[in-house]
Every structure is written in C-alpha cells, then in structure tokens.
Amino acid sequence: MALWRAYQRALTVHPWKVQFLTAGSLMGLGDIISQQLVERRGLREHQTGRTLTMVSVGCGFVDYPDALITNYYLWPAVQLANFYLVPLHYRLAVVQCVAVLWNSYLSWKAHRL
C-alpha cells in the first residue's frame, strides 16, 4: 500500500508526468505479457524493440485508457462496474489493471504472424 500511496502523491503533484509514464509503462507491460504468456517467446526470443515501440505508443496517448478503449464494448461495462462497485480510491487501479489486459491483447493482435 505504501507504493500505491506514493503513486497517488506523485499523481497529485505531477499529473502529466505520471500519466505519461503510466501510459507508457502499461503498454510496455502489456507487450511483455503478450510476448511471454500468450506467444510464449521466452527471454531469448523476446523482441525488445517491439516492447520499446509499444512503450512509445503508450506515451503518445497520455489520455490513454479512455482514448483507446472507449470504442469497444468492454470499456463501458468496466466503467459501470468501476463506478458502482469499486471504492473511489481503488478506481484508478481497476482501470489500470484492465488497461494491462487490453494492452496485452492489442500487442498480440498487432504483432500476430
């Protein structure tokens, strides 16, 4: 919880910087999950350039989770549950967890052979 509180403080003090880094990190994490868990590439076959590209794309969408997911049916359902069932201080975490799953799917879909 200390890490979460530190993140919340940083978000309050430097909202754009933290959102920028969060968006890039979530895209990178999604690509790592896609390559390692979905595609089962292993560390030797991991495409670092691909991960860095996804990080760059994520950093380009600072408004990120809303910008990429709004057009899909998943997002309204997640937000509905988030607003009605999740306490306010955990809502950002829920959105970020869903974003990691979505980023994994996007990475897999964009890089299928």
Automatic annotation (TrEMBL):
GO biological process: regulation of mitochondrial DNA metabolic process
Pfam families: Mpv17_PMP22
Gene Ontology cellular-component terms listed: membrane; mitochondrion
Name of the protein in question: Mitochondrial inner membrane protein Mpv17
InterPro entries: Mpv17_PMP22 (IPR007248)
Compartments reported by the entry: Membrane
Membrane association type: Multi-pass membrane protein
Family (UniProt): Belongs to the peroxisomal membrane protein PXMP2/4 family.
UniProt keywords, alphabetically: Membrane, Transmembrane, Transmembrane helix
Organism: Panthera leo (Lion)
Annotated GO MF terms: channel activity
Name of encoding gene: MPV17
Residue runs in coiled coils: none
Primary site of residence: membrane
Classification via PANTHER family: PEROXISOMAL MEMBRANE PROTEIN 2, PXMP2 MPV17, PROTEIN MPV17
